[in-house]
Amino acid sequence: MSSNATDLTTGFIASIVAIVLFGSNFVPLKKYETGDGMFLQWVLCAAIWLVALVVNLILHCPKFWPFAMVGGCIWATGNIAVVPIIKTIGLGLGILIWGSFNALTGWASSRFGWFGMDAEEVAKPVLNYIGAGLSVVSAFIFLFIKSEIPNNTYSVDTTPLISEHVINKTQDPDPDCSWVDKLSTAQSHLVGCSLAVISGILYGSTFVPIIYIKDHSKRNDSIYAGASQNDLDYIFAHFSGIFLTSTVYFLAYCVAMKNNPKLHPEAVLPGFLSGVLWAIATCCWFIANRSLSAVVSFPIITAGPGFIATMWGVFMFKEIQGRKNYLLMMLAFCIILTGALCTAFSKI
After folding, report:
1. How many CA atoms lie within 13 A of 81 on its CB side?
2. Which residues, in sequence order, are CB contacts of 21 under 8 Å at separation 6+?
3. Fewer CB near the last or first residue (10 Å), C or N of the chain?
4. Inter-CA distances, 151 with 27, 158, 260, 319, 320, Å
5. Please, are residues 96 and 22 in contact by the beta-carbon 8 Å criterion?
6. Least confident segment among 156-170, 216-230, 235-249
7. What pLDDT is recorded for position 92?
């Protein structure tokens, strides 16, 4: 098997693993109260950093480039909005919105060479454009899929994984509820969608520093001359930026809460597991970037997690029912598959 064929195979396998894990990493948290998410995001980021430490040791501690930490800072900034997004518009819709803007930002910055990066060329640019477009179109189809979970069911075991946020107007206010729980339905939708858009743009920019270093490593006059072309060599710096930034945000939150942060101990282990799953998925994404290039991997990996989250809702939590919903899911899956194939063949 040729080197190019091996790279393609490795890249597509890594992409599949990343899609499955990104679509599943919040599932362990489904049954647990997470409050405003500030404590949870710190636990999740701590798990992410530990995975990076293991990977760094396996790779024999490659050179640490501080600039790669900036990408982690960008990601952590977007990540602090995840819990409010899920609470206001649901996990499925949240993933689909931030995934769409993630895909567009990451694909466009790589394809057109934004932020000082080299523009990436593909063998068949038209197919690449079509694939990127279909990846975004598929996301909007999921907006029409409705959950069948009754609104009067409050058990944590039946809370929809993909649901519309419903506020019980007659329920007594909980003194421990977060600011998100106090929003009206209209405010929740506006805030959730806005945060998802912002998070998506930030997520789509997270690889920019690493790609910038790799591109400038080929220039003798650059301070990054000779830097590694292996994306995994930047994992530790990238994830260190994530953990450092999340820690700063959490400490600032503790100060703002007058040293009385809302902690949810029952969410620690699920949050840690969620962080491990996310970290493994991101390592796979780094491998896909290396094997396929970001202009190919971004549309593929950002389109699939929404579909995986929907599958959890259908087969695990039984929250999506009805012929219309099933037909919409099949249509979305076909579009996702077509977009992924177009993007894949644009590389060949």
Report:
1. 24
2. 277, 278, 280, 281, 284
3. N
4. 20, 10, 33, 12, 14
5. no
6. 156-170
7. 64
Max mean pLDDT among 193-197, 218-222, 273-277 falls in 273-277
In terms of pLDDT, which residue wins out, 278 or 221? 278
Contact 35, 178 (CB under 8 A): yes
* Coil vs helix vs strand at 109: helix
Using CA atoms, how far apart are residues 105 and 171, in angstroms rounded to an integer?
Answer: 41
Question: Domain boundaries in the chain?
Answer: 3-161+177-345
Q: Quote the CA–CA distance of 70 and 343 in Å, as a whole number.
A: 28
Cα 205 to the chain's mean position, in Å? 12
* Per-residue b or e along 234-266, where b marks 16 or more CB atoms closer than 10 Å to that residue's CB: bbbbbbbbbbbbbeebbeebbeeeeeebbebee
- Residue 174: is it exposed, middle or buried by C-beta count within 10 angstroms (0-12/13-18/19+)? exposed
* Per-residue pLDDT, 2: 62
Q: Any residues with CB less than 8 A from the CB of 235 and at least 6 apart, and which?
A: 52, 55, 56, 59, 282, 283, 286
User: Model confidence over 56-106: pLDDT tens digits?
Assistant: 999 999 999 999 999 999 999 998 888 788 777 776 667 777 777 887 787
On the question of pLDDT at 234 being above 60, the answer is yes
Placement of tokens 């991997």 in the chain: 297
Q: d(Cα 130, Cα 285) in Å, to the nearest integer?
A: 21
